[in-house]
Design goal:
The protein has six helices and 17 strands. The protein is mostly beta strands and 361 residues long. It has one domain. The strands form two sheets. The chain has a 14-stranded antiparallel beta barrel. The chain has a two-stranded antiparallel sheet with strand order 10-11. Strand 3 and strand 4 form a beta hairpin. The longest helix is centred in the N-terminal third of the chain and has 10 residues. The protein is elongated, with a radius of gyration of 21 Å.
Length: 361
């Protein structure tokens, strides 16, 4: 896993100036994630609409994306500090150095990747995410802002590091449903086998200067906790109108919810919090395709949980190999993307995951 992480980071090196970056097959990241109802893109975003698989009869890629997110840390440090997904992305040995160098502010960093392929309405895919958040207390911020002098520590300084990672294997199937009025409708389902990892360590005054770390109380005797779970997503799709330019979609994500969440504690306290990005939710989408292929999409995501989001996106294709797009997410902000020789590149504040999806604080 560490080798795969290093390869992924190296592949993204040419775009290292971006703080949030995705490269791959799907266009929807450049539309701030909007596109749930888009027939040819609905299986490439998140959440996925498995009903779109009904129209995938020839063998093709449904996903091929690699992205990273950085907040408060540079790209050059990502390979040094990002651990494997099976360690929640966090290496406890790094916490002292993180505290000394980045203890003046909160830091989030992570890497994700997805691959999917299929034919005849059947899809097989894999996904992996790892995300770390570090949180300094005011005493550590004071010490770092004063120059991080090891001979003049501030009493009570502390840095907490939370990490969450997972990898999953997906099996999806979609099929068309006959209609009397000639509109196109389909339903689909996707089963996911998920393994998740969680860790929480912290460093205090002596450890920040001399090394070492301490497990948070919820960790017990474990450096990393892990769980296995099975999830099920259900999707519906319809294309209507005389020229079939309007598309609609509804997805029940985690209709069968995988039990892979963890009961953790917040930074510098024993306040309980729940770390679980696989919450059950209803997701709705609408899309419109104009005469020249321009696309407008609007989604409401995560209805029924704490991460509800509204996403709007626009795509303008210049040809099959070139295009431009933009989008806005209420949670993530603005994005912009381009297609160059068939490869989609996205810059902006919305990636395949956000720190707030994993951690509540």
């Amino acid at each position: 896993m560490r080798n795969l992480t290093a390869i992924g980071i190296l592949a993204l090196g040419t775009c290292a100036f971006a703080q949030d970056f995705t490269i791959g097959y799907s266009k929807v990241s450049g539309m701030a994630g909007a596109g749930l109802a888009l027939r040819h893109e609905g299986t490439g975003g998140y959440p996925v609409n498995p009903a779109g698989l009904a129209y995938m009869q020839q063998f093709r890629l449904t996903n091929l994306d690699l992205g990273y997110v950085l907040d408060g840390i540079s790209f050059g440090d990502l390979n040094d500090f990002l651990g494997t997904a099976s360690h929640g992305g966090l290496n406890p040995k790094d916490l002292s150095e993180l505290a000394r160098n980045f203890g003046s502010h909160n830091v989030s960093y992570g890497l994700n990747g997805r691959l999917g392929l299929g034919a005849n309405g059947v899809n097989v895919g894999v996904t992996g995410d790892a995300l770390v958040r570090t949180t300094p207390n005011p005493q550590l911020q004071q010490w770092v802002n004063a120059g991080s002098d090891p001979n003049n520590p501030v009493a009570g300084m502390r840095l907490d590091g939370h990490g969450f990672g997972y990898h999953s294997v997906h099996f999806g199937y979609g099929r068309p449903i006959p209609t009397k009025d000639g509109s196109e409708m389909a339903v689909g389902a996707q089963v996911s086998f998920v393994r998740s990892y969680y860790t929480h360590h912290f460093v205090t005054q002596n450890q920040i200067i001399n090394g070492g770390s301490t497990r948070a109380v919820e960790m017990g005797n474990d450096d990393v906790m892990s769980k296995n779970g099975v999830g099920l997503d259900l999707g519906w799709y319809m294309q209507v109108g005389q020229d079939k330019r309007f598309e609609f979609a509804a997805v029940m994500a985690n209709a069968l919810k995988p039990d892979i969440g963890f009961d953790g504690t917040e930074s510098n306290s024993l306040t309980p919090t729940r770390i679980d990005p696989f919450e059950r939710s209803l997701n709705l989408g609408v899309g419109f395709t104009a005469e020249r292929g321009q696309i407008i999409a609007a989604d409401v995501i995560n209805i029924g949980n704490r991460n509800t989001d509204v996403r709007l996106g626009f795509d303008y294709p210049f040809s099959k190999q070139f295009g431009a797009r933009a989008g806005y997410s209420g949670r993530g902000g603005f994005t912009a993307g381009v297609t160059l020789i068939g490869v989609s590149i996205t810059f902006g504040s919305t990636n395949q995951f956000q720190a707030g999806t994993f951690f509540r604080f």
